[in-house]
Amino acid sequence: MSVVAEATAKDTRARLPISRLRVSTVLAPVLLGVAVVALWQVLVDHYDVSPLIIPAPDAVWAQVTDNRGSIVDGATVTGRNALLGLVGGAVVAIVGALVSHAVRFIDQMAVPVVAAASVVPIVALAPVLYTMFGAGNETGRVLVAALSVSVPVYLNTLRGLAQVKAVHRDLMTAYAATPTQVARTVTLPTALPYVFTGLRIASSLAVISALVAEYFGGPVGGLGKSITTSASSSNYPLAYAYVLGAIALGIVFYVVTLLLELWVTRHHPST
Amino acid sequence: MTDLSKTPEKTAQKTAEQATDQAGPAPFGTPAAITVTGVDRVFGKRKREVVALSAVDLTVAAGEFVSLIGPSGCGKSTLLRLVADLDQPSGGTIAVFDKSAEQARLDQDYGIAFQQAGLLPWRTVAANVELPLKLHGAGSAERKARVAELLDLVGLTDFAKSRPDQLSGGMQQRVAIARALAEQPRLLLMDEPFGALDEITRERLQAELVRICRETGAAVLFVTHSIPEAVFLSDRVVVMTPRPGRITDVVTVPETLRARTDATRDHADFLHTVAAVRAALHGGHEPAEDLA
Q1: Cβ distance B49 to B243 under 8 Å?
Q2: Which pLDDT belongs to residue B246?
């Protein structure tokens, strides 16, 4: 039996697909970004645009360096709310999806609720929650983040749980596997990539919700509050500096969940 | 073929005789691997009712290789699923080693392989093969030794640490067969395991299956679409027809073909048996001109 003839030696190590990235795929968007910022600077300088309309990138950058400590502090507060909301919302959503998957009746009950929740602008609840939990603490913001996270995570997890192949289910029946064994061997690994797709979508949602919730009141501190404060005092370059901080925070959340996703699903064939 | 029975009633009687007559290596008094008695399977209700199987009788002796052949919709896969207790009959009884099909499944009396290899893509080849052992609580040292043995049996030792998607279709199917053999079952249920493979790979895996069956002495119930495959591998070929699915004929493969080497495929008896099965499938007379 010539095994070698059938398949020549292949690299059998599991890899992150990131290693397949080429320089050009990174370089091209970076060049575009630099070009846009440069054009922005040139246009503002050339036409002498008022900072009330749009501040120049160098003015924004000056505010970033001057207020680095304040931006980091704000990002820490907002990031903490977003992270707590992300983790809490995801745990509730995953457990909920497992229950819905196991009990068809609950699934049917949950469908309209989830559909409704997915169209409700959840940040709109922020003022109500501040009244509920007191405007002096962050609970309302964490809850807003958690609620907005739970819908995409729930839907994706539920979809992932439904992906189990008939042949795998038959195999588990043939092995007389217990429900716990079926879940651990087949159902959860099948659903995992879908759960992480949900988490990746949810990660930026968590940051956006936590940030926007700050616009509606609650305690001082946090990037959203800082943006509204500096904008209302007409310090637009500073407002933009905080926006930059918010963008950085969102990207950090997204990239971390993406890397986590790639690592956890490294043994799954790419779909 | 002279000993070709033309009616289902006769077939059923004959099947029972052959079970004891031709099992060969099985010692006297060993229970039959599979006994199917008067089994019906009806899908759907009332107007949408589809009779998948009707009054099926079949006995497979210990160590015997029996193929089920027939056109799509003749219920051959349904019959195999009933034996595996993946589905329950609407009427009649199924015994596997003198137990109910359910008890046999719970006792892990059979190994099973499907047309799709059905490997878990996130596990290595070795981890896929050891899956049934792990589920049933075998120790890690025992598992390791058994997996090495099984991979050697199917010639995939070098690929133990590979992932299934790095293997060709034929190699994946060999992994699935190794997995089916993991717990040394006395009965193998195979549902078109080579159905999706090319002819060359198919013939090689057939030869491998013949060797494995000799080494393990397991009885096999083998579902296939291919007449030459059925004749090459089997002791008996069970011919089924659809609407409703029933057994119409049982063709016994002559002793002269039991060597099952490459030369077997060129043997005159092989061509005759293939023709006999084809005739049974078409429900008509043996078409001699087909032999050309």
Answers
A1: no
A2: 86
